């Protein structure tokens, strides 16, 4: 378990982390989200003892990282996949880390199989692609079989198969009861991977809750309404009627209407009374990306000033008053190994079978 209490970090006059208090619990994947410059990387460095807090505390299992006995066996982390001596082979890189921590050499070959790099283990890491480097960094994090794991942008540079593999890896590690903290900017992937979210902006805590609760609190569900494609005039008439009834209506690119402020029965009754035939009337739920954008839109540090359409009010295609651009909301060892691009080892460690079953049950439960 990771616990932060009033955690702050100053760099001169800049406060990078501002009084963060949160807990990362074992058994779930916790997504760590925030805009660029929000303080995520600094917070992870504070957790790992690479920076000293200006105020507050952060502990792992009740103990600061620097006081952990043989920390690499307790905590594994991927912060920078490029932090590798380019002249060393992948195996020698991991072997040097293992020797520093008293980890048996056989474990090096195990984790190389876990990440699918066993066939390139004797190649220099400096020649690795970005995705291969990410796999090597993940292997280093798993080397000590730690109970606590931190990953900063683990899918960066990976292809779709690799992203799926990382997603299953995170879930499987959490299913074993480990504490897993994952930072990422890919909302669609976090929606599929994370169970809980810690969201920060400008160094301050914005949210600490389950993914389901986060979406519910920071977005609005809506109804999708569609009339027959040939009845364009009916769509315009229905939009006007829905607005008159108190609904908010936005046209979708495919011709459907996005309606908020009215229940589905109210929309159905209105269409029926006006003899407007509907092809679709369905409830829609906001995505994690929409909820995240709505919560963090005021916390973004870097905004473009070169866009000639900045502040542009988009005209309503149905003749209504101009509307502002919509803000959305107003993803063991050998069993982790991927199928491609690197072949997995034919035989898995004996302990993998039980863990594989647990991972599959965890995924089915979702």
What's the helix and strand layout?
Elements: E1 2-11, E2 14-24, E3 29-33, H1 40-47, E4 55-60, E5 75-78, H2 90-101, H3 106-114, H4 130-142, E6 148-152, H5 160-175, E7 179-183, H6 187-193, E8 196-201, E9 204-210, H7 211-217, E10 222-226, H8 232-244, E11 248-251, E12 257-260, H9 264-273, E13 280-284, H10 288-296, H11 352-365
Parallel strand pairs: 3-7, 3-8, 5-6, 6-7
Antiparallel strand pairs: 1-2, 1-4, 8-9, 10-12, 10-13, 11-12
Helix pairs in contact: 2-3, 3-4, 5-11, 7-10
Shape: elongated
The helix fraction, in percent, is 25-40%
Strand order of the largest sheet: 5-6-7-3-8-9
| Major β-sheet profile | 6 strands, mixed
How many DSSP E strands?
Answer: 13
> Spans of 5+ residues with little confidence (pLDDT < 50)?
309-314, 316-359
Query: In terms of structural class, how would the helical and strand content be classed?
Result: alpha/beta
Give the overall average pLDDT.
Answer: 83
H/E topology pattern? EEEHEEHHHEHEHEEHEHEEHEHH
Secondary structure tally, helices: 11
Using the CA coordinates, give the radius of gyration.
Answer: 25 Å
Strand content is 15-25%
Distance, first to last CA: 23 Å
Salient structural properties:
single chain, 366 residues, alpha/beta, six-stranded mixed beta sheet, 11 helices, 13 strands, elongated
What's a quick, concise take on this entry?
This protein is of the alpha/beta class.
